[in-house]
Structure prediction request, 270 residues.
Amino acid sequence: MQNAKIKCGLIEEGKGLYNDAISKDAYVWYEKDWQHDDYEHIHERAQLTYVEEGYQYLHIEQKIYLVPKNHVIWIPSGVKHRTTSEAKTVNLMVILFKTVIRSDFFKDVHVFAAPPVLKEMLLYASKWNKLESEDGEQKLFLKALLNSLPNFCNESRFLEIPVPEDHRLIPVCDYVNNHYHENLNVGDMADLAKMSVRSLQRIFKEETGITLQKYGQLIRILKSVELIDTKQYTLSEIAFKVGYKSLSAFTSSYISIMKEGPKVKKNISF
Prediction:
């Protein structure tokens, strides 16, 4: 097909619509400096994405999933998704599976940190990067990797950003996303939603499964992940930029969300 766009081995026949021209059951695509599309797309293959460097946001239905460095996301077959990221560099591996075993695990989206054994398996799988041919070792290895995923999964629900369906709450979410570095005033947010504070708190919890306070904390920590990725700021500077008055308060909040302490990967030079 002339001028056809190929992504992860799939041919884009229309905007966001991919045709599977791959004959083998599992296809490996490893890419440095990944350039994502800014629109939704869909394909029939199930997708495992591992972020080796940087981070990605995956927009799927009424949720936005953060996939930080050394995390994976499982996306079932036929699920529309869109990717965004402000990371300077995104290195990732995508493995597309034509068939999966019958298990409830593979029917849902999952985001989790890749344990050392899974990272080693993914590193080994990179030897088949973009190969259209398939040998016995590759077929057995990738099938074993796929079938082992439920055992590796330690679900990271804290990396999900809920998006409410109630249109009255959208200005509230926008407010938090734009003013997370300030003291968030629930009265101001109630005015935006044109409802009482009590109603806002109740409806927000019903719609998203978390409180307004927890949502604000989640947004602050996810914004800090973006700042850490830039390698331009100290942790104290990042804490201040996302609205915390002390490094200790930021660290405590970060650990409660991310289950590990924040780390700046590169020393700041002055």
Observations:
- The longest strand covers residues 46-53.
- DSSP finds eight helices and twelve strands in the chain.
- The domain at 167-258 is CATH 1.10.10.60 (Arc Repressor Mutant, subunit A).
- Residues 232 and 268 are 7 Å apart (CA to CA).
